[in-house]
Design brief:
mainly beta; Pnp Oxidase, Chain A; Thrombin, subunit H; 2 domains; 6-stranded antiparallel beta barrel; 1 helix; elongated; disordered C terminus
Length: about 240
């Protein structure tokens, strides 16, 4: 696992936004139970707070002290660690407190260089039998996908179309894409990891033009390969 990095506990996790999807796993009587919940908050070095998941066969967290595996995808990096339940809160809101990890494993899942950008975009989404649009802001971009912030909620695996423009140039064609994951930032705006449905020559040409813009910083390096051991419960994708 050459591209897997094991990190010490304190400071190992990045700043995580509330609402980030967290995957939880437990082995109960030889059966693997899996679910996903929303992250509520993190106290660095002490604990994580998540929504309390409920299974049709009972509560995943049956007792304080039980262990579980936590995985989540954040800005193209898959994080994973083993932790234990510290506390279960029932009222006024059902929450679970998880111990801050002693050791964190992380893998960069991106296959393409990702460029930080700030580009106004237009998101076209399906509403019943017609396409509607909402303005957004592209935060980063690669040949395979991008990260876009917009006020509208769009669920994972929803298909949409994306159009954007650079300065005074004409807007790009509407590019078909799919939402792979989302979170809500500190300002309450949804940020979406979006994968393009096909490789678009216009995107590659656009990235070439972006490289010459003053606001572009150094690209985020792509990994050599992606180990299978850190694959998420859902198929990993090369998006934010």
């Amino acid at each position: 696992m050459d591209d897997t990095v094991l990190l010490p506990s304190r400071g190992a996790l990045p700043a995580l936004p509330p609402g980030l999807k967290i995957f939880l796993e437990r082995n109960v009587a030889g059966q693997e139970l899996r679910t996903s919940v929303g992250l509520v908050g993190v106290k660095e070095g002490q604990f994580l707070i998540t929504e309390r998941p409920v299974f049709f066969r009972g509560n995943l967290f049956s007792a304080v002290g039980c262990d579980c595996v936590v995985r989540f995808l954040h800005q193209g990096v898959m994080y994973g660690f083993i932790t234990e339940v510290l506390h279960i809160q029932h009222h006024p809101c059902p929450l679970v407190y998880l111990a801050y990890p002693e050791l964190v494993e992380k893998v960069n899942l991106r296959h393409e260089e990702r460029y930080p950008v700030k580009v106004r975009s237009m998101v076209f989404y399906q509403d019943v039998d017609e396409f509607k649009s909402v303005p957004g802001m592209m935060i980063d971009l690669s040949c395979s996908g991008c990260r876009v912030g917009c006020p509208l909620f769009i669920d994972t695996d929803e298909r949409l179309e994306l159009s954007f423009r650079l300065d005074d140039e004409p807007a790009s064609d509407r590019l078909p894409a799919i939402v792979r994951h989302y979170c809500r930032n500190a300002a309450g705006v949804f940020e979406y990891g979006i994968m393009f449905s096909q490789q678009e020559p216009t995107v590659r040409a656009y990235l070439g033009r972006l490289e010459s813009q003053v606001r572009i910083t150094a690209p985020i390096p792509a990994p050599r390969n992606v180990p299978d051991a850190m694959s998420p419960p859902e198929a990993p994708v090369a998006t934010s």
